[in-house]
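[audit] Reproducing an earlier prediction to check determinism. Same input, same settings, fresh worker. If the tokens differ from the archived copy the diff job will pick it up downstream; this log only records the rerun itself.
[audit] input (357 residues):
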Amino acid sequence: MNKKILVTGGAGFIGSALIRNIISNTNHSAVNIDKLTYAGNLESLSLVESSDRYSFELADICDPNKIKNIFEKHQPDLIIHLAAESHVDKSINTPSEFIQTNIIGTYVLLEQSRMYWGSLENNKKDKFRFLHVSTDEVYGDLEGTNDLFTETTRYAPSSPYSASKASSDHLVRAWNRTYKLPTLITNCSNNYGPYQFPEKLIPNTILKALNGSNIPVYGDGKQIRDWLYVDDHTRALLEVGLRGKIGQTFNIGGHNEIPNIDVVKTICNILDVLKPSKHYNIAKYEELITHVEDRPGHDSRYAIDASKIADELNWSPAETFNTGIKKTIEWYVENTNWCNQIIKNNNQYIRLGDKDS
């Protein structure tokens, strides 16, 4: 049966990739709710915007009246909640925005979903689901080299960003337990791929290299992250949203644990072959790497145990880091106009970062 899937934050990096997947590879419909803040870009949906199975609603998830009206208008079967402030550096400087969007916004969505769900007829009510998309950062960091985050790992957030996401996770679980709202939660590792806002580590590195600018790396760059190609993530979200057991949490990881410095060097090495430097002062892009002061509370290692989603929903990543990063770099090289326009419109936000959304 074809579903109507409402995606919050659908003009963002992961949200737009999810909607492109829904429209291009399934028969389901997608409703995109987005406030169009600096990281939201409708151009990322140009490939599917003409589809009669796609709709866009300009709205703030913190506005209960607008959310209520959108639910009544579109009658969704599945909510996939991706809208969030997600940049760690920004959360350190302006934490209030993260409290508002990530905690209050999630509360508003849960309450409006609860009231909408309660109004549904039996068949539609039985099939309704609310999927909350979270992050592995809620778990803090790992000390042992062989340790992995599981769905039962204790929460220990380190930044205002991860604390706000941990808070929203707890709200979702509470609404399931108290009100029986049919919710699910996913906690994903670092996403990367085409159309990612250039404040994040991988696109930031690519664009700084191509521009001949210094490539900043926090501290010694040995912080380890588990990298997940965004299209693999969106496949996982649809599996969880459509087939996951209500009340469950699923960790989603790419099985690619790589230190940040190695990610940066890999990008530089691929660019050396794909687009050799023409900058007068460098022969290789690695010469642009500049180590800068580490940020406060920087977690040392993240790594996901994704065995549960593999066992229960038969999901596994299709891309290795080597295949995914090559596709990503090629996309940025071939879409410099998109990148340049993003940078021009949002120059004040283009900063060093290493976390998706």
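[audit] rerun output stored. Observation attached for the diff report: Residues 4-192+228-256+300-319 form a domain with the Rossmann fold fold (CATH 3.40.50.720).
[audit] end
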